[in-house]
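In response to the reviewer comment on reproducibility (Comment 2.3), we provide here a single inverse folding case reported in full, input and output, so that an independent group could reproduce the run without further information from us. The structure tokens appear first.
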């Protein structure tokens, strides 16, 4: 190959810009250094507003979930009635038998 056994390849990943050290003989990655990712760009003066918005969203989700759970029986009854109407309106077809599938 032209490279000595002791020379490792230093490669920068084109996708994530990570730095890799690769053994040229075995093709194994000897070390991996992930690129430094910048932190979120959050203004601390608006932190109270962000927390209040997240709290409101959690409360809304809980209220929706609570409503669904307390009215579950009514919702299921209406779904069952709708399915029964569809079943009555649909034409009764000939049931499939195992023999018909061959």
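Designed residues, in position order:
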């Amino acid at each position: 190959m032209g490279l000595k056994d002791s020379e490792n390849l230093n490669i920068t990943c084109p996708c994530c810009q990570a730095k890799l050290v690769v053994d040229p003989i075995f093709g194994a990655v000897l070390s991996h250094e992930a690129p430094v990712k910048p932190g979120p760009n959050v203004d601390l003066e608006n932190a109270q507003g962000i927390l209040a918005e997240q709290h409101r969203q959690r409360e809304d989700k809980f209220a929706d979930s609570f409503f669904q759970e307390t009215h579950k029986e009514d919702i299921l009854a209406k779904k069952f009635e709708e399915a029964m109407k569809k079943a009555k309106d649909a034409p009764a077809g000939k049931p499939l038998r195992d023999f018909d599938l061959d």
